[in-house]
Amino acid sequence: MRSLFGNPTRDRPVTALSLLLIGVFVLALQDALFKDISSQTSYWQFQALRAGGNFIFAIVLAIGGGGLYLLIPQRTGAVYFRALLMTFCMFCFFGGAPYLTLTQMAAGLYTYPLFVSMLAGPVLGERVGRWRLGALVVGFGGTALVLSPWEDGFTILQCLPILAGFFYALNILTIRRACRWENTLAMVFAVAVAFLISGILGSVVLTIFPLPMIVQESAPFVFIGWPLLTMVVVGFAVVTSILNLIGNICLSRAYQTAESSWLVPLDFSYLLFAAFWGKALFDTLPTTNGIIGMTLIGAAGVLTAWRERVRRQMEFQI
C-alpha cells in the first residue's frame, strides 16, 4: 500500500499498463451504474453522496497507508486545479447520462487525445504536424458517426461528452506536467473534496432557489437539487464511490509512472468495456455507425500516441 500511495520515483511501464486496464474497467462499470440510477436521483445529490464516500474512504486509506500526511499535496495549487478540471469534466460527462447511450458518452469522452494534440501547440509549444492533423480529422470523423447529428433524434446534450473530453485532456496534461511527483492519494482526495463541494453547492442552490417547473421537467437530472433520497440511491452511491476511488487511484498512478504516449492505446479499451457494460446492464449494443465511429476514434488516439513516441525518441537522439 505504501508503494501505491507514496511519491513515485521512476517510470514503471508494465505496472502502469496493468493499473490502467484495471482503472478503465472499473470506471466503465461505475459510469454504467451512474447512468442506471440517474432516473432516481439528481446529478448534484448523487455527486455529493458519491464524493462523500470518496472523502471518507480516502481518509481511511491514508490512515492505513501510513498517515493523514498522504492527503497533503506537494503543490496544492496544481493538484486542486486538476481537481477543478475533473469537476467540470464529470458534470459534462454525466449531465446527459439519462438521455445518452454509454456508447455516445464513451465516444465523446475519448476525443480527449485529439484535444491534447490541439493544445500541444498553444499550451506546450509543440509543432503539430500532418500526422497529428490527420489524426484529428479521423477522430472527429469518428465522433460525428457516433453522434450522428444529421439524424432526427440528435440533441445538443450529445455534445456534452465531447466537452468532457476537452476537460479530461487538460487533466492529463496537468498530471504529467505539474502533478507527476504527487502521491496518488493526495490527488484522489483533492478530487473528492472538489466533487463534494460542487455536489453540495448544486444541491443547496437548486433546492433553495428552484428553477421554474418547466425547466426542471426538461432535464430533472441536472435542474433539480435534492430529490427524495432512497436507500437504493445510497447503495449505488457507496458502490460507485468505491469503484471511483479504485479507478482514479489506478489511472492517476498509471499516468504518473509511464509516458502518456505509452498508455493511450490501451486507455481506449474503455470503449470496449463501455460497450460490454451497456450490453450487460441495458441490453444495448452500439449501432453500425457507432462501431465504425469508435474504431476511428481509437485509431486516431493510437496514431496520436505513436507520433508522440516518435517525436520523443527523435528529441532524445538529438
What does this structure look like?
With 318 residues, the protein is mostly helical. Helix content is 76%, strand content 0%. It has helices at 2-5, 13-37, 43-65, 76-94, 102-109, 112-124, 130-147, 160-178, 184-208, 213-218, 220-223, 231-256, 260-267, 269-282, 288-317. Helix 2 (13-37) runs antiparallel to helix 12, helix 3 (43-65) runs antiparallel to helix 9 and helix 5 crosses helix 8. The longest helix is centred in the last third of the chain and has 30 residues, at 288-317. It is globular. The model has no long low-confidence stretch (mean pLDDT 82).
Q: What is this entry, summarized?
A:
The chain has 318 residues and is mainly alpha-helical. It has helices at residues 2-5, 13-37, 43-65, 76-94, 102-109, 112-124, 130-147, 160-178, 184-208, 213-218, 220-223, 231-256, 260-267, 269-282, 288-317.
What is the CA-CA span between the terminal residues?
A: 39 Å
Which structural class matches the secondary elements?
A: mainly alpha
Give the mean pLDDT: 82
- Helical residues, percent: over 70%
Q: Into which percentage range does the β-strand content fall?
A: under 5%
How would you describe the shape? globular
Low-pLDDT ranges: none
Number of helical regions:
15
